[in-house]
Amino acid sequence: MGISDEQKVGFMGSCKRKLISVVGRIKKLGRDDPRRIIHSLKVGLALTFVSLLYYWRPLYDGFGIASIWAVLTVVVVFEFTVGATLSKGLNRGLGTLLAGALGVGAQHFASLFGQTGEPIVLGIFVFLLAAASTFSRFFPRIKARYDYGVLIFILTFSLVSVSGYRVEKILELAHQRLSTILIGGATCVFISLFICPVWAGETLHNTIASNIEKLANYLEGFGGEYFQYEDNEESIIVEDHSKLHNKLSSLQAYKSVLTSQSSEESLANLASWEPKHGKFSFGHPWKQYLKIGSLTRQCAYQIESLNGYVIPADIQVAIQFRRRIEESCKAISTESGKALRILASSIKAMTNPSSSSKTHIENAKAAIDDLKHTLKSGYLESSDLLGIIPDATVCCILIDIVKSVEKISEATDELGRSARFKSVEATVSPEKSSQLLHRGIVNPVFDSECGDGDDHVVIRVDNNNINNNNEAGEIGKCQGNLDVKPTSKGEIIVCK
């Protein structure tokens, strides 16, 4: 039975739609992270280069069929980040070198036992080294850093010792394989390091800061979404669930933090292999990033519990009680979010957190005291217990979140000390600084008005009944390295 024209048209249309869909996904993947496209080109370049060992006759005459090991090395060693490539390259090189040397030595030692005893001795060597190497892979530290090297060691030793029993020119064979593997590994490392490098350490650094910022976004927007009332009735606005989900979509980015542990641990491990790059030294405290990441996830899980109460449910709610706790709860969530945002900015800029982050935490604690006073008031005795349970639970979660934010702040301070982050404290003379503080017009902040350099805005002077230009002149005279900028917002910005 033949295919009708309508079926052909339908089939062609379906193929066209699938092709368009695939092309769209490819474009989106490239737009989301252009480094993926660059990495693909780098791998192609590396493979083309090592293929010359086969294509160019003089090189092929020198290495022979062993040239294929260079191609295989590029395929298995070249990874997305510099740290991953260095880790695999060094593991493969050292594992091959050590196993090759031991394999040749084992073959030479076994040959002393004659034709009859040689295979027995080689079998014993293979058994002992393979068993010991495999057992070593169960140690967590070796598993994390040297697992690939141990695997290559077992493979290479077995190949060299076994093939050496049938191949007379064992030294020549080992030399060719080792040389081509080193050529392939060196090619990967060189291209990864010097052509648009992707650093695992920088990725981890930005990931931790971004995760903290995601929590800040949610906490700053929580109060406005949770406390919603109708204008004319003492009842909560109950929106359609789909509408509310769309409205909160911009706040749901924190969910990615919940599953970030494995990627953070992997990046920290790979970052420890990388040389000094940018602001990151070889001994950068990557483990401290894991501590901050763990505390961030703990806070994200608390936010996940909090998020469950944003969607209205068919339960009785004490509206008067919710109105009484509204101000305190909003202050707690907003101040916590502001503190996290400052911490995220300080990590990104690699500067010590300004004192304003601790100020926001103290403000959140003060709001907690007000909230506790409300919860202990006599109003609770006359309230419906079932109606206040949801809001009371939200209060408890917010209190726990403030504790988590404080722990993140302490861990960030520790990171700043370990990594020697730059200080962003004011460089105004102590006398002038104390005068301004006494007048209540100095508030350290982060800002972008001084550009994207390492030193951002260090002081914002709120202008209350003073002349901007005069005040700017007074501050500018205190230090010669300050750039003082009066703004139209009634403020004075002082930059390093």
TrEMBL record:
Source superkingdom: Eukaryota
Transmembrane segments: 37-56, 62-82, 94-114, 120-139, 146-166, 178-200
UniProt keyword Ion transport present: yes
Membrane topology note: Multi-pass membrane protein
Keyword annotations from UniProtKB, A to Z: Ion channel, Ion transport, Membrane, Transmembrane, Transmembrane helix, Transport
Family affiliation: Belongs to the aromatic acid exporter (TC 2.A.85) family.
Protein known as: Aluminum-activated malate transporter
Source species: Cucumis sativus (Cucumber)
